[in-house]
Automatic annotation (TrEMBL):
Origin organism lineage: Bacteria, Bacillati, Bacillota, Bacilli, Bacillales
MF terms (GO), sorted A to Z: hydrolase activity
Protein species of origin: Amphibacillus marinus
UniProt keyword annotations, A-Z: Hydrolase
Domain of life, source organism: Bacteria
Protein name: 3'-5' exoribonuclease
Domain HD: 258-400
Keyword Mitochondrion: no
Matches recorded under Pfam families: HD (PF01966)
Gene3D superfamilies for this protein: Hypothetical protein af1432
Length: 408
């Protein structure tokens, strides 16, 4: 079976040629999650200001804020599988004192309120929160990717199958071991791929960029320049749209302040122009670059398999009392972060699967994980990439995270 698609403004061709039998074999080993059918989705965009609503929603997070007149109110974030929904509750008749304990001990609520619109942004003014004790089904109350889980899975595994041994064994065993969480976890809380299946889609996206760069006929530097030329073109289109819409335009500028950074990173990659990128190192590093997010984020449906794997002798009673709800930061995971977790997981999984890699390759992989954010002020654990693959993984991560928002 052949799927001929494209990515990144139709610049990157995608050719996934597998038989039906090969596709089914992959999906048997790496099954897709079961998705809800026939849901009628509530979205704020479809509601008029002032209209009353009654909806079952999942609470992502909440916090007490102060108005300009120093009165307390609750700022709330809800979700269903159409996306995130903002809300607020005024402190009328002791509403905060009554509802904060409910929010601390429950995840699903029947929400009654009124639609508010302020500066073009809609939210719910909540009048009543009624806790619901039903079993929480993540895909019913959390947003998830609109791409096919099966197609993304098949594409991911087909790329991993191209690896040489022992990289192929390391990559596929890793995905298989953490598959239930890997296919589920978001890649961010708010900026990009912030939905169930986000990490899967983002990982595949990076691999698409990487394979394009490594297979470009004129070489990887020419490929990088071609990509940034496309970014320049789309940035000009954004500027023109803003110009035509005027200063009141609310359209988000996806490629603003990106051009100089991309050229700086390409210049860094050019210092290794005498080298050819290593497909095995780059693809495995991409698989691991954000895998630590299975620990860094918390959400309904997340298991604690990764915590159990890394800390088998720890007392984990606190995990059993978790009130998992919407997409948020794991209170433990945020203390470490996904970048260090990626290195720790790589180290332990190499031992777990008895993988024989050279000490140089292990450090190359670790370096790619540590530097994929590019700059220390963006969370990179090193000052700047020090290998060709280090520059490449940052560039493809940078491009894919922004293209995700442009693609929306």
């Amino acid at each position: 079976m052949s799927n001929d698609l494209s990515y990144f403004y139709e610049l990157i061709p995608l050719h996934i040629r597998l038989t039906d039998e090969e596709r089914q074999t992959i999906l048997t080993q790496f099954p897709s999650p079961k998705l809800p059918e026939g849901n009628t989705l509530f979205t704020l965009d479809n509601e008029e200001a002032g209209s009353k609503i009654s909806q079952r929603l999942l609470v992502n997070d909440f916090e007490v804020r102060l108005t300009r007149t120093q009165k307390q109110f609750l700022k709330l974030s809800f979700s269903n599988n159409s996306g995130m929904i903002d809300g607020k509750m005024w402190d009328n008749n002791g509403a905060l004192e009554k509802n904060i304990p409910l929010l601390e001990s429950n995840a699903i609520f029947d929400v009654e309120g009124v639609i508010d619109s302020y500066n073009g942004n809609k939210s719910i003014v909540v009048n009543q929160l009624i806790p619901v004790k039903d079993q929480l089904e993540p895909f019913s109350l959390l947003p998830y990717t609109d791409e096919s889980f099966a197609d993304l899975t098949i594409e991911l595994i087909s790329y991993l199958n191209e690896l040489d041994e022992p990289f192929r064994k390391l990559a596929k065993e890793t995905v298989h071991y953490f598959w239930d969480d890997f296919r589920l976890v978001p890649a961010a809380k708010g900026y990009h791929h912030n939905y169930l299946g986000g990490l899967l889609k983002h990982t595949v996206g990076l691999m698409r960029f990487a394979r394009y760069i490594l297979s470009f006929e004129k070489g990887h530097i020419e490929a990088l320049l071609t990509l940034v030329q496309k970014v320049e073109k789309m940035y000009k289109a954004e500027l023109y749209t803003q110009y035509r819409q005027g200063q009141d335009s609310k359209k988000r500028m996806i490629w603003n302040e990106t051009i100089d950074h991309l050229y700086k990173m390409i210049q860094g990659a050019m210092t290794y122009s005498d080298q050819n990128p290593n497909y095995n190192l780059l693809i495995v590093a991409i698989l691991y670059h954000d895998i630590g997010k299975i620990l860094e984020y918390d959400h309904a449906g997340k298991s604690f398999k990764a915590f159990n794997f890394l800390y088998p002798t720890a007392n984990k009673d606190a995990l059993l009392t978790r009130n998992q709800a919407g997409i948020g930061m794991d209170p433990l995971g945020v203390l470490v972060g996904h970048i260090p977790y990626g290195v720790i997981l790589l180290t332990k999984l190499i031992e777990q699967f008895d993988i024989s890699l050279s000490i140089e390759d292990i450090h190359q992989l670790n370096h790619c994980i540590l530097c994929h954010h590019g700059l220390p002020e963006w969370g990179s654990a090193v000052r700047h990439p020090q290998t060709l693959e280090g520059y490449l993984i940052h560039i493809v991560d940078y491009l894919d995270s922004r293209y995700e928002n442009a693609d929306k």
